[in-house]
Every structure is written in structure tokens, then in C-alpha cells.
Design brief:
Layout: H1 2-11, H2 23-31, H3 38-41, H4 47-59, H5 66-79, E1 83-84, H6 90-96, H7 101-113, H8 119-125, H9 131-136, E2 141-142
Parallel strand pairs: 1-2
Helix pairs in contact: 2-5
Bound molecules: heme C.
Amino acid sequence: MAVCALLAAVAGGSATAQPPATPQAAAVKVCSGCHTMQIVMDTPKDIDAWHDTVQSMLDRGAQATPEELELIMQFLFENVSTVDVNHADTEVLMTVLQAPHSAVDAIVERRRSRPFKDLADLETTVPGLDRALLESKKRMIFFQ
Ligand code: HEC
């Protein structure tokens, strides 16, 4: 039993280093090794493009455990990902807009008959959205 526990600890890579506790900590640890975090925060893209970017950073030599990669993807998804309000699936709407289920349902219902024009249209039509958050993320929110 003791041997198994030891092997598990070694295999997990956590015998010496503490794994980063939050998505942001993981991103800062891994993604500011070669350049600043600014370059990451300055280039919002959709989640598929982030997968490609992170893969290309790994190809360039970025080092991360699978747990760190998962946290990094979560950080990128929640903070630096774009959304097309008129076409995104519900998971993207929930995550990028940090919207409750009821608001996401209202978005999907409304865009079926009439696509949203802009942020003001979204905010005045759909209750339950965090306006301060939308304002801070407006460069990532599109209406195509
Ligand atoms: C081993 C070094 C290294 C690490 C670690 C690294 N990068 Fe990079 N990154 C680079 C280099 C070199 C460039 C500039 C080359 C270019 O423009 O593609 C770059 C450019 C970028 C760019 C701008 C170009 C683009 O594709 O949009 C983004 C965004 C980026 N990195 C994100 C990340 C993220 C996210 C992480 C953490 C998972 C990360 N990087 C970790 C080396 C690294």
C-alpha cells in the first residue's frame, strides 16, 4: 500500500513541486516563461484557436503537466476567449459571458427569430447578464 502511494505521488509529478491552485496561477506559471502574460491577454481568440496556440507553445518548448494544461485552457476559455453571440453554443455563451442558464436560454430563443445587433441590444433584451463584465469583455464579444 505504502509503495503504491509513493508511486502515485511520483507519477503525478507532485512529490516536490506544489501544483498551481488556480487557472490563473497555472497560466502565469507556464505562459510567462518566454514572454509576458500581456501577449496572451492581448490576443483574444476562440477556444479552438487557443487549443492550436497552446499546442504551438508546447512545440516551442513550453512545459506543463496535464493538470496545468487543463487549468490553462480553463483560464483562457474564461478570460481571453471570443464569442459570437448569434452562433455560439450554450457552453461558450455560459463560459465567456459568465451567464446563468436562464440568460443563455433567452439568448438562444431570441436569436432564432432575430439576431442580436450589438451589446446594447443584448443587454436590454436579456435579463440576468453581468453588465460590468460584458463591458470589460466587449472587445471579445461579437455579433456576426
Ligand atoms: C518556450 C517558450 C514559450 C512559452 C513557455 C510560451 N510561449 Fe507563447 N510564444 C513563444 C514565442 C517564441 C512566441 C512568438 C512567436 C510567434 O509570434 O508566434 C510566442 C507567442 C505567443 C502568442 C502570440 C502569437 C499568437 O499565436 O497569437 C500567444 C498568444 C502566446 N504565445 C500564448 C502563449 C500561452 C497561452 C502560453 C502558455 C500555455 C505560452 N504562450 C507559453 C514562446 C513561448
